[in-house]
## 1
Amino acid sequence: MADVTVGIVVFPGSNCDHDTEYAVASFPGVRPLMLWHNEHDLKDCDAVILPGGFSYGDYLRCGSIARFSPIMREVIEFAGKGRPVLGICNGFQVLVESGLLEGALIRNAGRKFVCRQSTISVINSDTMFTGAYSTGEVLRVPVAHGEGNYYASPETIDSLESNGQVVFRYTDAEGNATPEANFNGSLNNIAGIINRQGNVLGLMPHPERASEPLLGSGDGRRLFESLFSCLTGS
Amino acid sequence: MAFKAKIKVTLRPSILDVQGKAAQHALENLGYSSVESIRIGKYMEVTIGEEARADAERVCTEICQKLLSNPVMEDFSFELEPVN
């Protein structure tokens, strides 16, 4: 693999930055680079990851303050050029607050913070983040969030669905999008979406916490693998 | 001259307010059966150092749209009071 540099943005309150760094660094030829939120330079990164956590203590709304961090200006510009940006959990919340992805993530319908293994299905494997999966495949990936209930207007939901922008859905182990599997109340069981251009993905589950079997599941690993092989053309 | 903006940010009616629901259930348990619904929002006080009311109003609208509320899920309203 040719050398690939992946920027991982660290906001005050990020707490999955080092897990993400660990997962990224486990790929040969891929170098994680931590980027402090106050920086103005993405330093020639080939991709940017906004990790999970509680940026700025989730003050005001989850992700709303992080969205105005100095580095987010660069991230928005980077995304605008079609370069890959991945937002995991709080990173997904930052992406919807910044307008790079549509909709909003509101309080879980059951009011509780949910921290457990979830099952999600790959709805669209034809993206730069999911090429190593097959459509319909069921993955076991942990979730840990209090505000992951995906909401958007009916028009937005229709356009996401008809354009193949729904990438992951909460399902049971057989791949059925049941109400029981939809523990946070997301519209259409949505767990992850991609932008229209196909270069910005946000998801609530944590693929970096499922990046090797020792962690209980290695199912998240291929998300990183998909992206990195896309970047190296291998 | 400055203005104090009293800003209210509320969840849009179409959004399920789980906090409000929880508080309503608690009131039911306390015996307040006439409480029909609760919607919980945010109240903010912002001092804006502008001379003219129109300018304070413009600034207040902008900050509500950009940061203090998320138009996907929230509505906002405000009142301006002159302060010295």
## 2
Amino acid sequence: MPVAEPGLGVETVDLATTPLRELNARLHAPDLAPRWRIVNPHGAHAVAVGIDAEVEVDVDGHVGYYCAGMNKRATVRVHGNAGVGLAENIMSGAVCVDGYAGQSCAATGRGGLVVVHGDASARCGISMKGVDIVVRGSVGHMSAFMAQKGRLVVCGDAGEALGDSIYEARLYVRGEVTSLGADCVEKELRDEHVAELRDLLAAAGVAGVQPGEFRRYGSARRLYTFDVDHAGEY
Amino acid sequence: MCGIVGLFAKSADVEERLGAHLGAMLAQMADRGPDSAGLAVYRDPAPPGATKLSLFSEDPAEDWEAVAGALEAHPDVAVVASHAVVLLDADAETAQRRVRERRPDLRVMSAGERIEIFKEMGNPRDFVERFALDAMHGSHGLGHTRMATESRVTTQASHPFSTGLDLCLVHNGSLSNHNRLRAELRREGIEFQTDNDTEVAAGYLTWRLREGASLDEALRGCLDDLDGFYTFLCGTADGFAVLRDPIACKPAVLAETDDWVAMASEYRAIAVLPGAEDAQVWEPEPARVYAWERAKV
């Protein structure tokens, strides 16, 4: 995703001098400027949360927890690292991080696209409900835990218990998977999955990665309803 | 909740300003733990044959010169708010026994060659001022801001907890099997001063180290023997180690540059350090011990 050039029509907000609530209130106002640049975030929490507008927001530096949470329609790019809960419950639009993302990235996301160019930590995509997530690096343990819908693409490795208690999300991992969680199994990578991966990688702006290099994982569908034969896996 | 910070200097500049940096980090974590704050700093090794003790007195008008006399300590006592750092020409056991026998009203916060521990109730920002962290140098240090959940807000239940000579522990989380473990450790001769859960973790490490385990082994033992949530930061004479429980719900961020290694509950505590923008930043994996040590001279 290209970076917004400074210039006409770009609203710049310095978090070293502007209170966070003021920034977020301005981003929630009607008729806001189409392009925003936020500087000096210094790890602040809740930067650019709850936007519901077709705007582009560039954040220069590292952010803390819940950046771009509940995002709707906006494109938010973080030129740094993001802490816990990046794009939590994202509804639509796109959130992109140049660096790493902390744990619970895109948790419960219902739609839109989340791109992490570095690694994402534990529980990436936990309880995802329709969001697409593309991680250029690796993801930590218990990623896609109870994932219900959407797609998680990991170009690196996945930690322990990937896709534990997964419902219908599709998981693609290019590297090693330390272990699969309960009811998560490897599935055949068919042509339609390769095509889907090609689209997702293109949308995320990830180059140098071939869609055919991934393996697909998903639900074995044994835990949907309680079955005493599987009691040990719940 | 609670906040943890740690800083390990890799350059002379950072050593010189270690206390100022740790103070800034603690202030950032004040919201995570407004009840009390504490700091362990490693610096100025005691001369050979001597032991350094950090002492705490509840009496704000404590006569520390008289304390030094009573303990046969070096006369140049470093008084820091409610605490004082004293040097005794004795081994650590003798030095601590002398305090117990001659001044049982004082509390030994730390003992060793390099370690100094200061901790106090109240807002961490006030702690940073009161204990003049800005003026402290050191090779490495760790700090804590406490939001009490498992026991009362007292100075004794504040972190860091001493776990043996030149060793200490700070903790974010809560342990659920601390009562039984405390009883078991008491049978092993480990003493406890509070009903605090972290003190049990500290006592556990003390016991394992006493039984000959390395710090790495003792920390790995936590994975089997402690039940609950924890991010631990453990200080040693030469560095520090980080461990998160296997679920890793409690936050932790590590960062490293050519000049320092830092650990904190949140990135914003690291953002105040020079060069933080360009640091390598990552979250430690669960159930894995991360350790940094100064090169031995």
